[in-house]
Design brief:
13-stranded mixed beta sheet, twelve-stranded antiparallel beta sheet, Glucose Permease (Domain IIA)
Length: 603
């Protein structure tokens, strides 16, 4: 009887839908059990799966408006599973765990655990006092620090990396969940994503096509060629790839990552991707989702693959294979970007299957190594021997007149010599191209190699090394290279974009007056070391890389003896230029006179 029942149960399992048997990647927690992580409805400043330097952003960032000390709230019922601290990365962080749904939320870059669980903050101080002050990681006994949804767990800060903000992650046993997946957390905006351009590349297309997108109506975009003509139809055959460039505004001016993308043919979906979940191992594989040679972290520019890309980076995916369609068949395409609320933006065009009219043998792709390309005058060369090259075409290095370039060279950086444009025809490469620029003279310290990135429309830094008669450089993107002379000194000024304080009163160190001074440079870049004195004496400071400023802490005990302090600072750049001296006369009269005994005394 028991064996018969077991067989019946196994047969029943065989006929159940796979969706009922498969374990969900995202825990099925009721929507009303997940709340917002802050006491105010903060806009998102950084979204899930955005490009970072070495991996993808695995959470959402929420604005704290430049101020540390806002309360962070438990997003669901649970207990503190782990606390940790490091001087880089996540900084001070805690993990809140819900055992019922096996769901974890991670809060990072905190100032302290100064919330309702005050003993947790005392534990943090004790660990730093008795242990290694540079960092710790501690697993806690389950249930030792329990919290209900909405409980204050700590304070926002800027420990680790980045200026003041809250970084929030959700993790299941399978991977990382986009915080915007949860209705109470995603921003209820009505603005669809912005589409910037569409990049079309085909096995049998002589050269890639970059089309500009312009909004025709809300959520509907038209495509235009480089000559300004409306792009509606193209004849293609074989496999082709679509990459769509765009971003999403979410209640702020930040250009955020989108939530999803789609490709439909004749109204039928053929490709769809959601950034709602990432397996742990996919966090470092940017190439699966983005054209990494055209995408950028700063400024944020995202070129999305509208196709599945190989994880091993050896094979190029494709959006559509026209060999499966009839000759002369017309295929209306809709390519879309979506946000977490469901707003969608689309571009439309028609592909005609031109199978009989294309000589496919002319455009056959093959792997090539040892490619070296030169400008007509032989001055500039790029060697792609160490890069992965596809296509039978070439890298074009063309001399361009200054009046014909599509950008302006910044004032104070005079051009020295020629401008060369680098573009491809019937080829592409992955990895670093090794470049050489040979000049007929020895360059001065003021002269450097500059690169204008055409995909983002900005000057970008380029890895370079000075040689006796020119430069060697590394190249991964397309654009313009030139030699400019940095004749402009750097600048140093008080930071005016911040409030006077960057901490709320409850977390502010009342013993010190904090001052920030921003360093800037138009050309070769500024040095992070400055010449700083207070009342003629050299004074210590620290450089804040996120704000690109120096941070000066002045003990308030000085107000007992000095009604004014004279601060002077000079900045330096890599071309040898020195800024004008900046002078700041600081009045100490408004500083508090009643100071705790623990405050340092300086006279």
């Amino acid at each position: 009887m028991e064996i018969s029942l077991l067989r019946s149960f196994l047969l029943l399992l065989c006929f159940l839908p796979a969706a009922l048997i498969a374990e969900s990647k995202i825990p099925d927690i009721p929507a009303n059990e997940v709340g917002f992580p802050l006491p105010y409805y903060s806009p998102v400043s950084g979204t899930f799966a955005e490009i970072r330097n070495h991996n993808l952003h695995l959470g959402s960032d929420f604005k704290s408006y430049g101020l540390n000390g806002h309360s962070i709230l438990a997003t669901f019922d649970g207990y503190i599973e782990e606390i940790s601290y490091s001087k880089t990365g996540y900084g001070l962080s805690l993990n809140l765990y819900n055992p019922k749904y096996k769901l974890k939320s991670k809060y990072a870059h905190l100032h302290s655990f100064g919330g309702s669980l005050y003993d947790l903050e005392l534990l943090r101080r004790a660990i730093l006092l008795m242990g290694d002050p540079s960092g710790f990681q501690l697993k806690l006994t389950p249930g030792l620090f329990s919290a209900k949804k909405g409980t204050a767990l700590g304070k926002t800060g800027e420990s680790g990396s980045g200026i003041s903000h809250l970084h929030l992650e959700f993790r299941s046993e399978k991977g990382i969940i986009n915080p915007l997946y949860f209705p109470e957390i995603h921003q209820k905006d009505t603005t669809p994503p912005t589409i910037l351009s569409l990049y079309l590349e085909g096995d049998h297309l002589e050269s890639p096509i970059l089309l500009t997108a312009k909004e025709k109506a809300k959520g509907r975009y038209e495509l235009f060629t480089d000559t300004g003509e409306v792009f509606e139809t193209i004849s293609l055959t074989g496999k082709f790839r679509i990459r769509l460039s765009g971003y999403d505004f979410i209640r702020s001016r930040n250009k955020n990552n989108v939530y999803g993308m789609d490709l439909a043919v004749n109204g039928e979906p053929v490709f769809s991707r959601n950034f709602d979940f990432l397996a742990f191992e996919d966090g470092s594989k940017k190439h699966q989702f983005y054209d990494i040679n055209r995408s950028s972290l700063s400024p944020p520019v995202y070129f999305y693959h509208i196709y599945e890309q190989s994880k091993n980076f050896k094979e190029e995916g494709y959006s559509l294979d026209l060999d499966g369609y009839k000759p002369k068949e017309k295929l209306p395409l809709e390519v879309s970007l979506r946000d977490a609320t469901g707003n969608k933006s689309s571009v439309f065009f028609t592909v005609i299957h031109d199978k009989n009219e294309t000589d496919s043998s002319r455009f056959a792709k093959k792997q090539k190594n040892g490619n070296k390309f030169n400008s007509a005058d032989g001055k500039v060369s790029v060697d792609l021997s160490k890069a992965e090259v596809s296509g039978e075409g070439s890298l074009l290095i063309t001399e361009i007149n200054e009046k014909d370039i599509p950008f302006k060279i910044p004032t104070g950086l005079p051009l020295k010599g020629k401008i060369y444009q680098l573009d491809t025809k019937k080829m592409s490469w992955k990895g670093e191209g090794m470049g050489e620029w040979n000049l007929s003279y020895t360059t001065s310290t003021k002269e450097s190699l500059y690169f204008y990135d055409t995909s983002i429309g900005k000057f970008q830094s380029i890895t370079q090394k000075r040689k006796p008669n020119g430069f060697s450089f590394k190249l991964t993107k397309l654009g313009f290279v030139m030699v400019l002379s940095d004749e402009t000194p750097p600048t140093i000024f008080p930071m005016t974009s911040l409030a006077r304080y960057i901490e709320l009163p409850e977390v502010r160190n009342h013993c010190f007056e904090e001052r920030f001074y921003v360093i800037g440079d138009t050309g070769s870049g500024f040095r992070t070391s400055v010449e700083l004195t207070i009342d003629g004496q050299t004074y210590p400071y620290e450089y804040d890389p996120d704000r690109r400023a120096i941070r000066v802490l002045i003990p308030k005990s000085l107000q007992k003896e000095r009604p004014y302090l004279l601060l002077e600072a000079k900045a330096f750049d890599f071309a040898g230029n020195v800024s004008e001296p900046f002078v700041d006369l600081i009045s100490t009269r408004g500083w508090a006179e009643e100071l705790q005994a623990s405050c340092p005394v300086m006279e």
